[in-house]
Amino acid sequence: MDRPVQQSLKTKRNLKWIFYSILCVGALYASWQFLGNQLKTSIDPKDFITAKVEKGNIESTISAAGEVIPIYEQVLSSPIKATIQEVLKPIGTKVRKGEAILVLDKSESLLEFEKLTDQLELRKNEITRLKLNLKKELFDLEISDSIKALNVQRLTADRDNTKYLLDIGGATQEQMDEAELQLKIALLEKKQLDHSLKTKKQSTETEIFEKDLQAKIQGHAITELEQKLQKADIKAQRSGVLTWVNDRIGLPVNPGETLARLADLGFFKVMGSISDIYADKIKIGQRAIVTVNDQPLSGTINNIRPTVENNIITFEVQLDQSNHEALRPNMKVEVYIILASKSETLRIANGPAFNGKAKQKLFLLQDGRAIQKEVQMGLSSFEYVEVLSELRLGDEIIISDMKQYEHLSEITIK
Is residue 179 domain-shared with residue 92, that is, in the same domain? Predict the structure, then answer.
């Protein structure tokens, strides 16, 4: 006995049929489009751009990324350990030379200054006391030395008298020997005292010099701290625009920590970056072209950083017109480094049709047709491409992307 087909199976079959139908229609449409493009032998003039072969100068270039930055930028840093107390100027403010930007709480450094000053006074008093004590000791040694000298004179006289008496029979030899012994002892004592006096003078001078030097060093430290305290009033050293400021009130800052950046926005330079595979092609003194809003500005590479970071070389371009009105800080620009140049050669305006190969297939406009020619290319820049063969002065070439027509040797112009 036949059983009726369930409704769910019917619905499932219908959906599958619709899906395959849509898939077939899509495939047929894609094939039709592909065959239409392949068989298309005409083109509308509004669908392409042309350029004429002309004569002029051309420069071979390689491109790099660039960023416009101010030539003059002052970094204001904290000279002391302090905290940010007040921000007087917000970012973007134009400031004049001498205007205050930040106020720092320098109470901790002021206490350190007072402490060093008091220590210096104590050291000076110590030096004064040392000089007085040493002066007294030297005076006592000098008196003792004078006494010893007088004693030597007395013993010398005694010995001479004893010798005279010995000669006339008034003294014995034992007395003579005793007199000479006493004189020798006195002379040795005098010599010892002379040496002590000389050594004491030298050690005294050395000790005083050392103490004076320590005081002088501490005086320099106080002067240096005083100068830092004066610089702790963060002021602009030249007129400019405040490009960054640390506005975190109450934040502790250490000596040397950046507090603000001030730039002169009247003059700019360009920091360029390029892959290190071009390291042997970039040299100081090379000319470069920087495009700013499609406007070319010429310049010279005047600095190349010696280090390579993440396979990138960084260099600096000094612009011939560093104050050009189109320049803005942090603007991203294209930099074209000139490797070689030719004058009075055949060239065409650069466009999507060119891929950098030595030989390229281009379409030449001629009598209402676009005829494909294989052309030998030469130098290339962001503006022009050099033509070495197959084209003549005045020839008109399609410089738009013509990949979809590259299988055709000739196209009709509608």
Answer: no
Q: Per-residue pLDDT for the chain (414 aa), expressed as one digit of tens each? A: 445 545 665 566 666 666 666 766 666 655 545 544 444 578 888 888 999 999 999 988 888 999 999 888 888 887 778 888 788 888 888 888 888 888 777 777 777 777 778 777 888 888 788 778 777 877 877 888 788 888 888 888 888 888 878 777 777 888 888 888 888 888 888 888 888 778 877 877 787 788 788 878 878 777 777 776 666 677 777 788 888 888 888 878 888 788 888 888 888 999 999 999 998 889 999 999 999 988 899 999 999 998 899 999 999 999 999 989 899 888 999 999 998 888 899 999 999 988 888 899 999 998 889 999 999 998 888 789 999 988 999 999 999 998 888 888 899 887
**Measured in Å, how far apart are the chain's first and last C-alpha atoms?**
70
Two tokens at 239? 């007129």
For residues 78 and 84, give the distance between their C-alpha atoms in angstroms, rounded to a whole number. 10
For 156, counting Cβ atoms within 10 Å of its Cβ (0-12 exposed, 13-18 middle, 19+ buried), the class is middle
Beta pairing class for 369-380 and 384-387: antiparallel
Same-domain status, 139 and 249: no
Structural domain containing residue 255: 73-106+232-263
d(C-alpha 331, C-alpha 291), whole Å: 11
On whether both 252 and 201 belong to a single domain, the answer is no
Question: Of how many residues is the chain composed?
Answer: 414
Query: Residue 159: which of 146, 137, 140, 175 has the closest Cα?
Result: 175
CATH of the domain at 395: 2.40.30.170
Looking at the structure of the chain, the number of domains it has is 3
284 and 404 inside one domain: yes
Amino acid identity for residue 269 in this structure? K
